[in-house]
Design goal:
Structural class: alpha/beta
Number of helices: 12
Strand order of the largest sheet: 4-12-11-10-7-5-6
Radius of gyration: 21 Å
Largest sheet: 7 strands, mixed
Shape: globular
Helix content: 25-40%
Distance between the termini: 38 Å
Length: about 400
């Protein structure tokens, strides 16, 4: 089926909920994707941060294939080896205590919200359920995670939204303190606000937030849906902030392209969920967990070091390009803030036409999330395209 046929069938049979680019994709290799007609595209989007190992990774493919042939799914009424081994590795490499597995980032954040409120209910009873999030945050597309998201543009149509969320300013500890009305149970943050514009939180603010949460017995809940699994140059971003969350979420890259997410609970919160208080049918799916085990096996210190080095290389090269006001982020989670007169949404469309896939984010930003295995040749080709497009943009 060619691209034109695919686009026509989508328009006729699929709910038009996505602002898709006019591009069909057929296969990939490394960090390069190909259309059905064979045109190559350097992928600096990786399925919105999902395909951390790129395309055609043989170790991942072997692990997934072997597990699919053995056991594709069992319910959580029974035990299976892949999810147990995955939980063991995640807790060992993070200092957290226990894992709950889900399917996507929004679902994982729903689970974390439930855990925060149950922790407080178990200890204090009703009336202490408010969760503080940050302006410009993004936590998902469910009714509850939309309410948790600190952007008014997402608070439309689906009324009534879930109650119990208030919003503080990022990097302003007094703004957080001002929301303490006796009903707060947790503070929920992204350490780098992805959809909000690739905005890293200030380290002193995060350490202050950790201390404030400990003082008030609020849970420090960290959303690592986009920042986790090597994306920032450490297995999880919180490890670069020298904190240990009370509870955190992960998703996107963990399955290497398969739907997998979850919640990690610290010693403090490990016993909050009890039988019947939280569940999901496909959580801990054996095939997805086998893929995740392969991801973690390959996510060693050498790979994490290469992510940091590639990020430094791209930052240095992009900073010298026309129209670039600033570059934000860590590792291979980069936001290119543009000067006045440059429009990110239009430029991303032009980049696609020239063979480079990128994303946008808030504050007129081009967002870049290439596969962590991206090669220097692929980065250099991407830089060539970016330089040409920016150079002709005004």
């Amino acid at each position: 089926m060619n691209s034109e046929q695919l686009l026509a069938l989508d328009k006729e049979h699929v709910m038009q909920t996505y602002g898709r680019f006019p591009l069909a994709l057929d296969h990939g290799e490394g960090a390069t994707l190909y259309s059905p007609e064979g045109r190559a595209y350097i992928d600096f989007a990786s399925g919105i941060g999902v395909n951390c190992l790129g395309y055609g990774n043989e170790k991942w493919l072997d692990a997934v294939t072997a597990q699919a042939a053995k056991l594709q799914h069992v319910s959580n009424l029974y035990y299976s080896e892949p999810y147990v081994r995955l939980a063991e590795q995640l807790t060992a490499r993070t200092g957290m205590k226990r894992a709950f597995f889900a399917n996507g980032g929004g679902e994982a954040n729903e689970g974390m919200i439930k855990l925060c409120r149950k922790y407080s209910f178990d200890k204090y009873g009703q009336g202490r359920s408010t969760i503080i999030t940050l302006v410009d945050s993004f936590h998902g597309r469910t009714v509850t995670t939309l309410a948790a998201t600190g952007q008014d543009v997402f608070h439309q149509y689906f009324f009534p939204f879930t109650e119990g969320f208030v919003y503080a300013d990022a990097d302003d500890l007094e703004s957080v303190r001002a929301l303490d009305d006796g009903t707060v149970c947790a503070v929920m943050v992204e350490l780098i606000q992805g959809e909000g514009g690739v905005l890293p939180l200030d380290r002193d603010f995060v350490k202050g937030l950790e201390a404030l949460c400990a003082e008030k017995d609020w849970l420090l809940a960290v959303d690592e849906v986009q920042t986790g699994v090597g994306r920032t140059g450490s297995l999880f971003c919180f490890q670069q902030y020298d904190i240990l969350p009370d509870v955190m979420t992960f998703a996107k890259g963990i399955g290497g392209g398969l739907p997998l997410a979850g919640v990690l609970a610290s010693e403090k919160t490990a016993e909050v969920f009890t039988p019947g208080t939280h569940a999901t049918t496909f959580g801990g799916n054996p095939v997805c967990c086998a893929g995740a085990l392969s991801v973690l096996e390959q996510m060693d210190e050498a790979m994490l070091q290469s992510v940091r080095e590639k990020g430094d290389y791209l930052r240095e090269k992009i900073a010298a390009l026309p129209g670039v006001r600033e570059i934000r982020g860590m590792g291979l989670m980069l936001g290119v803030g543009l000067e006045e007169g440059y429009e990110a949404s239009r430029l991303v469309g032009t980049l696609l036409e020239k063979g480079l896939l990128c994303l946008t984010a808030g504050h007129n930003t081009i967002r870049m999330l290439p596969p962590l295995v991206v090669s220097k040749a692929e980065m250099d080709r991407a830089l060539e395209i970016l330089e040409a497009v920016l150079g002709s943009a005004t």
